[in-house]
Amino acid sequence: MRHPEARCSFVPDAQIMPFSQGAFGCYNAEGKLVKESLCVRERCLLFRVAPLLPVTATLSDSMIFGGFLFKHYGHFLLESLSRLWFAKEHPDLPIIWVGRDPDILDFQQEIFVLLGLKNPTRYADHPVRIRRLFLPNPGFLIPHIFTPFHEQFLAVQEPSPTLPGKKIYISRRHFGGDSCLLNEEELELRLVHKGFHIYYPEKHSIREQLAYLSSAEKILALEGSALHTLILLTSLKAQILIMPRPETQINPNFWTIAQRKGFVQSVLPMAKLYRKAVRLKHGHALFAGELDLDYLLTLLEIDDWSPHALYGEIFNRYPGFHFSDVYASQSSI
Hints:
Layout: E1 8-20, E2 23-27, E3 40-41, E4 44-45, E5 48-49, E6 57-58, E7 62-68, H1 73-80, H2 85-89, E8 95-98, H3 106-114, E9 121-123, E10 128-136, E11 140-141, E12 145-146, H4 148-154, E13 167-170, H5 184-193, E14 196-199, H6 206-213, E15 218-222, E16 239-243, H7 253-261, E17 264-267, E18 274-279, E19 287-291, H8 293-300, H9 307-317, H10 324-327
Parallel strand pairs: 2-5, 6-10, 7-8, 7-10, 8-9, 13-14, 13-15, 15-16, 16-17
Antiparallel strand pairs: 1-2, 1-10, 3-4, 11-12, 18-19
């Protein structure tokens, strides 16, 4: 039985305007904007609305509106998949996307297979009419909405048995030079001496990542999309510890996901974590930071990373610690 929040409307003779110059649009037969099709983030429009133009083709009698096809790994997981719960219920209906590039990347296809999605895909690269367009309501809206029915749709991989004492650090050092950490190589060396396994997720398939990460007792990572892979697990026993990026505090998405999934997750306070930060001229990150490794490794010696235990111990050691160091926003997902 479908969850009561899992609703889907349809638009007869919908008219989809392709993505161009930061805008796309979906209109009904009367030429009125279909507001449910908009890409919304933090109650604001992410893209402008494209004007209604004459349609040049009719693609199919019935299709599912997939929304914007993000190429960014984290945005794809959280936003592009947000309407596809309905697609799994109706594998015969094609999904129509809008976006900058019609190609389905390898990791996207891998996730479609993992989720059991068999729907054909189409891409609106010119104004098109769909006789019957299904519009599922999104199951994830950045940064605070993650619905129970969407969590169930995404939770497809059973975790591996937990290996006692296994600690993993998810590294960004080989991820396109966008590490955000100036001394990550030194960090890895010192973590290895502390018994950590260094893991480069981009070198492994999604299924392999899920199997490996779920076998850990503890997972340490810099804030980033690699952690969002864990939403595909049915459960996770590992304790997660996140280091915020040097430019700001952690994105609320991580708390939204942890609460819905029941993850045991903590975030290291920003205060004292970095010795310095420098502004970057290239890449996705705004700043790169130099970690205070002695301070960080002292915190990692705390045995229990659950929030109450970890923050209580930090309070005892560093009286100047404030929860505002942990719970503010915004950063990259």
